[in-house]
Amino acid sequence: MNFIYRSLFLCGLISFTGLISIFSKPQSANAELKIKGNQMIAVPLIKTASATTITGYPLTNFTTIALPYGWQIHPITGKVFFHSGVDLVAPVGTQVKASAPGIVVFAKDQGSYGKLVIINHAGGLQTRYAQLETIQVNLGQTIQKDDIIGTVGATGQPTSRETHLHFEIRADEPLGWTAKDPKEYLK
């Protein structure tokens, strides 16, 4: 009898281990697993948007860039650092607009970013609006392109001496939300 219990336990353990290995195997980035009947099948993913769908400008008027994306010398500390967005020069109180439709996933103070709004968009893209004076959206709110999300401020630890909007584009990649050069999206 003891032998039967051990055999059943081992069969169950092997089945469970096999099930775990199915879920832990890296899957194609172009497919997801679905259960059909008693089988698991790979279904191709259909992206609803591409990187080119974010083409809005976050301010009412085009402006100069105080600090571009990429490796920079910090204008205040003089140290080399990676600037994950662009600083768009604008006076405090200037309205900030959503660059594309999406859902607000963050809307509050966040350390060096100051008052920060993060919007997730279709196609695995995200926009970040930082150093805001005011936030005029709520967590979970659905946003349309050009909706007002806040106003330019000088909260947090700005990298530029001029008042500005710190604007970022990020893509959902295997290592997490990866910063992209916003100049390709600001149109």
Tell me the layout of helices and strands:
Layout lengths: L1 H23 L6 E6 L2 E6 L20 E3 L2 E4 L6 E4 L2 E4 L5 E3 L4 E8 L5 E7 L3 E11 L6 E2 L4 E5 L11 E10 L2 E5 L7
Antiparallel strand pairs: 1-2, 3-6, 4-5, 6-13, 7-12, 8-9, 8-11, 9-10, 10-12, 10-13, 13-14
Could you walk me through the main structural features you see in this protein, from its secondary elements to its overall organization?
It comes from Okeanomitos corallinicola TIOX110. Pfam families: Peptidase_M23. This is M23 family metallopeptidase. InterPro entries: Cell_wall_metabolism_enzyme (IPR050570), Dup_hybrid_motif (IPR011055), M23ase_b-sheet_dom (IPR016047). It is globular and about 40 Å long. Strands 3, 6, 7, 8, 9, 10, 11, 12, 13 and 14 form a 10-stranded antiparallel β-sheet that branches. By secondary structure, it is mainly beta. The model is unreliable at 3-36 and 38-52 (pLDDT under 50). The protein contains 1 helix and 14 strands. The relative contact order is 0.18.
What gyration radius follows from the Cα positions, in whole Å?
23 Å
Q: So how many helices?
A: 1
Indicate the mean pLDDT: 79
Structural class: mainly beta
Total number of beta strands: 14
Uncertain residue segments: 3-36, 38-52
* Main pleated sheet: 10 strands, antiparallel
Q: What's the N-to-C terminus distance?
A: 74 Å
Using the alpha-carbon principal axes, give the shape.
globular
- Which percent band covers the strand fraction? 35-45%
The multimeric state of the shown protein is single chain
Element string (H = helix, E = strand): HEEEEEEEEEEEEEE
Helix residue percentage = 10-25%
